[in-house]
Amino acid sequence: MTQHVTFHDLKGASVFITGGGSGIGAALTEGFVAQGARVAFVQRSDATAFCDQIEQRHGIRPLFIPCDITDIAALQDAMAQAAAAHGDITVLVNNAANDARHRLEDLGVEDWDRSIAVNLRPHFFTAQAAAPMMRRAGGGSIINFSSISYMMGNAGYPAYATAKAGITGLTRALARELGPDRIRVNALMPGWVLTDRQLELWATPEDLAAHLARQCLKEHLKPQDIVDATLFLASNASRMMTGQAMVVDGGVVVTG
Q1: How many domains does the chain have?
Q2: What amino acid positions are annotated as catalytic residues?
């Protein structure tokens, strides 16, 4: 729940989030629920206990739809279920990703395709399903989670970095295509956000110190830092922003 601002126009909005039951996605779900939005989300693992917690804290229960986002037919069906429950989707947040580390020499064709199927392909097909709903509603906001990883030229996950660069390109193409329908499409570029997964798998003291040294702001990012930025892009507070890549990384990369 944000302690900084309330976006009144998000109350009652129909919001759909991929990967909304863990990590940054769980924080996003709670952030939108706290604004009074009607939130539906998908992920593979069971999120029933998480929904129980959100309902206890806010008195509103998000709609959890189990789904593997690599199954496009199932993903678009989940969006139809969300719309049936909450009305036409007007805020789409493509958050789900898998940043598993991999080396160039170890990645086969199936591994490459699997990475793209998780990290890039769903963004196109969720937008395809959401666009008609947003047109009926008179507009909407699509927020695609990219990453500063490709902007930094990071090694260690070339397929992931490629997908994240592709998301930025897709965002700009869709912004141009959907703009006449008052549908905004922006990319959000997080820095290194210290979720439980990051802390468990990759956040060594040495790497944390090295990354913090690259930031202008000497404080590690938390999921809430990304929530507030996402709420802004979803709200009409950003009504004339589209086709943009909005960086939230504590000042590692420079745009413009």
Answers
A1: 1
A2: 160
